[in-house]
Amino acid sequence: MKEGDRSTASTTKWGVDALSEALCQEVHKDNIRVTIIEPGLVDTEIDSQITNPVAKQRIEERRKSIQPLQSEDIVAAIVYVLIQPRVNVNEILIRPTGQEH
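^ that's the sequence the OP posted. Answer follows.
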C-alpha cells in the first residue's frame, strides 16, 4: 500500500468510526447496539473486477502469501456480537493470522 493509499484508508476509517459513534449515541437509549466489523483480507470474487494489471498482480501475490479469511470467519464474528447479552461490542478487527498489522 502506498503512502497516499494509507492516508485515504485512514481518513475513510476515521469517518466510519465517527459515523458509528454518532449513531451509537443516538440509538443507545433504545437498546440498539452498533458495531463496526473490519475484516482483513477475505476470499471473495472481487479480484475478478480489478482492471489495473499492477493492482491485480499485487493482490494475487498477496493472496498467495496469506491464507485469506473465509465468509464463515466473518459470520462467526457477527454471531459473537449478536449473542452478547449485556455487552455492546463497538468494533471488531478480524484478520488472517498471516496478515501484517
